[in-house]
Amino acid sequence: MHSAIFATALTGFSFAHAAGPVVPGTTGKLGDAAIVTTNTPGITYTATLPNSTTSGIRGFVAGTSNANGTGVVFNINLSGFPDASLGPFLYHIHDQPVPSNGNCTATLAHQDPYIRGEMPPCDPTQPQTCQTGDLAGKHGNITTNPFQTTFLDLYLSTVKGPASFFGNRSIVIHSSNTTRLTCANFTLTSGNSSGGGNGTSSAGNGTVAGSKPVPFTGGATASFVSAGAILAGLVAYML
């Protein structure tokens, strides 16, 4: 009986760490994301994926401030994805830039100034309730190879200062199981961002040469710890 309980618990945890169902209305601890209306027209930040030895994915993600100052128009052009069985592929703006050694793990979790967390998954019909950096969640996963799309995101900023600013952050491409495949920093490629500086980083782009992509943990870490504590209790109960 104890073995059955333990097996059931393990099965439950595997489902808990899967994509899971969308829960409409789930939002951040600080509320819904605000629509950005103060972007300076003509500013573009671009993340160009590197010529990595561990990934064949190439291309760029570019975000340009909307002409009316509201939101950011993203232009995405990517190709060279691995076997389709590893997809659909995901892409997010991560909180930290890629360091000089190119390690995508160091970009940490998604840009999330409203403290929403990754679970339950983003509801694309209510993008204001999603993490600001969850581009795939709000606008769709990568399902074709090559992949090209353009969309307007109302909740990101090209102006330095607010937490919605993405110009000093990075883009990370994931497989469907959230393994980080490649990454790159955003750098200023057009215009002048008010607030000083050009939003570029001295850190490098891409994955570590000769290293294997690592699984994405991000906001799942807290859930994993809690699950581990419960499993430990179950083991003690069995003994």
Brief characterization of the structure:
By secondary structure, the protein is an alpha+beta fold.
3D architecture notes:
The chain is of the alpha+beta class. The protein is built from 3 helices and 7 strands; from the N terminus they run αββββαβββα. The chain has helices spanning 2-16, 135-139, 220-238, and strands at residues 44-48, 58-65, 72-79, 90-94, 147-153, 170-174, 180-190. A hairpin with a 6-residue loop joins strand 2 and strand 3. Helix 1 (2-16) packs antiparallel against helix 3. It is globular, with a radius of gyration of 19 Å. The chain starts with a helix and ends with a helix. 35% of the residues are buried.
Give a short account of the largest sheet.
Answer: 7 strands, antiparallel
Order of helices and strands: HEEEEHEEEH
Q: Could you give the distance between the termini?
A: 12 Å
Structural class: alpha+beta
How many beta-strand runs? 7
Any idea what the radius of gyration is?
Answer: 19 Å
Structural shape: globular
Topology, pairings included?
Layout: H1 2-16, E1 44-48, E2 58-65, E3 72-79, E4 90-94, H2 135-139, E5 147-153, E6 170-174, E7 180-190, H3 220-238
Antiparallel strand pairs: 1-2, 1-7, 2-3, 3-5, 4-6, 6-7
